[in-house]
Amino acid sequence: MRFLLYLENCFNKCHAEARAKGKVFPSQYDKEVAEARFRAIDYILAFMGSAIDHTYPFLQGGFKNNLPDEMKKCFEVFCREYHEHGYLSGLRSAARHMGIPTNQLQMVLYRIDGVMRSLAHKAVMEIMKAKTDREIKFAKHFFEQTVASNKEMILNLR
Question: How many Cβ atoms from other residues are within 10 Å of residue 42's Cβ?
Fold first, then answer.
């Protein structure tokens, strides 16, 4: 789940940049770009977690809700345990909770992580490098198009 952790780090960085109290931006446009970057990364992170407060016209229900049931449960349990205990302890705790060996859970999570990475890595990199709001919009649109054209990767994940 390295990509999800990377995405969360990007989210935290963008949130700190956009919401910094007392930070002086060189111009109003730079502040708008920081906020647009934050919203775009938030949107991708919300898509991966299938947040209900967003709509995803290119894949109804988001990423997590389109995973096969067993993978969805592994994803949910691991994320919950990770946020409570950290990576290694969370992995062990999730495996214990699921009643499967740790290495089997890790293999399932690697497959999910690979699909996440193939769908969003390039867009996230472009958003983080973007200097203008137009570049951010293009990267977000590219992400949506990538998901729309590769949604069978999620639906056929085993």
Answer: 17
Alpha-carbon distance 125 to 140, whole Å?
11
Residues 6 or more apart whose Cβ sits within 8 Å of residue 107: none
Query: pTM to 2 decimals?
Result: 0.89
Q: Following CA atoms 30, 143, 13, 28 in sequence, which dihedral angle do they give, to the nearest 10 degrees?
A: 10
Q: What is the pLDDT of residues 73-85, one digit of tens each?
A: 999 999 999 999 9
CB 63 within 8 A of CB 74: no
Q: What is the pLDDT of residue 1?
A: 82
Q: Alpha helix (H) ranges present in the chain?
A: 2-19, 28-48, 69-85, 87-98, 102-129, 133-149, 151-155
Scanning the structure block, which residue is given the tokens 């495996």? 95
Q: Which of 3, 18, 32 is nearest to 135 (CA)?
A: 32
